[in-house]
Specification:
The complex is a heterodimer. Chain A is mainly β. Chain A has no helices and 13 strands. In chain A, strands 2, 4, 5, 6, 9, 12 and 13 form a 7-stranded mixed beta sheet that branches. In chain A, a hairpin with a 2-residue loop joins β5 and β6. By secondary structure, chain B is an all-beta fold. In chain B, the strands form 2 sheets. In chain B, strands 2, 4, 5, 9, 10 and 11 form a 6-stranded mixed beta sheet that branches. In chain B, strands 1-3-8-7-6 form a 5-stranded antiparallel beta sheet, with no helix packed on it. The chains are: A mainly beta, B mainly beta. Chains A and B meet through β4, β5 and β12 of A and β5, β9 and β10 of B.
Chain lengths: 120, 111
């Protein structure tokens, strides 16, 4: 298994440009999420998805869009990049345990290697 | 508002020392607390704690949760230079999978 993969590893954008950060996982995990990590701030949740076709906002969703058309992929779109979006972006996924066929609990999240984005 | 506070913010020790990292939290409908290690890239999972008083152990690392006093500790014994990293604590609410992270403790182990 490749686990959680992210592309690109590095990106430099100019203010106002748009781009998509790619995230894929091959573990058939239901849950996927995007975090950003800034110095002194820890990781903050941007958007998440509990399954294909279902997405929701996290703590810091403004300026970002997501979609989940397949279980494997969860791209993050920056609509009009701003210097405040300079950060390291991590994608994560986890699976939902079932007991007697019913969902019971989420397990640990597995993180991708990250994308370092600079907006000038 | 959910809150996770880690202490100390940074720590420098010599190889062979034992360290204790702290994580205190305030969260509505607490479900579990997770510890991650972050070296240069992605955080890697260490422990998930849901019950008070039950120590989780992996080699030289161990962790315990106190749900009454709302904190957890991560112990590392006989530290090695490979333990140098940022250690992140995160909490999760019941019925959800979203993680709320602290700012981390940067541990540096010098030979």
């Amino acid at each position: 298994n490749a686990g959680v993969t992210q592309t690109p590893k590095f990106q430099v954008l100019k203010t106002g440009q748009s781009m998509t950060l790619q995230c894929a996982q091959d573990m058939n995990h239901e849950y996927m999420s995007w975090y950003r990590q800034d110095p002194g701030m820890g990781l903050r949740l941007i958007h998440y998805s509990v399954g294909a076709g279902i997405t929701d906002q996290g703590e810091v969703p403004n300026g970002y869009n997501v979609s989940r058309s397949t279980t494997e992929d969860f791209p993050l779109r920056l609509l009009s990049a701003a210097p405040s979006q300079t950060s390291v972006y991590f994608c994560a996924s986890s699976y939902l345990s079932t007991t007697s066929g019913r969902a019971s609990s989420y397990n640990e999240q597995f993180f991708g290697p990250g994308t370092r984005l600079t907006v000038l | 508002e959910d809150k996770v506070v880690q202490s100390p913010l940074s720590l420098v020790v010599h190889e062979g020392d034992t360290v204790t990292l702290n994580c205190s939290y305030e969260v509505t409908n607490f479900r579990s607390l997770l510890w991650y290690k972050q070296e240069k890239k992605a955080p890697t999972f260490l422990f998930m704690l849901t019950s008070s008083g039950i120590e989780k152990k992996s080699g030289r690392l161990s962790s315990i949760l106190d749900k009454k006093e709302l904190f957890s500790i991560l112990n590392i014994t006989a530290t090695q230079t490979g333990d140098s990293a940022i250690y992140l604590c995160a909490v999760r609410r019941a019925g959800a999978n979203n993680l709320f992270f602290g700012t981390g403790t940067r541990l540096t182990v010098i030979p």
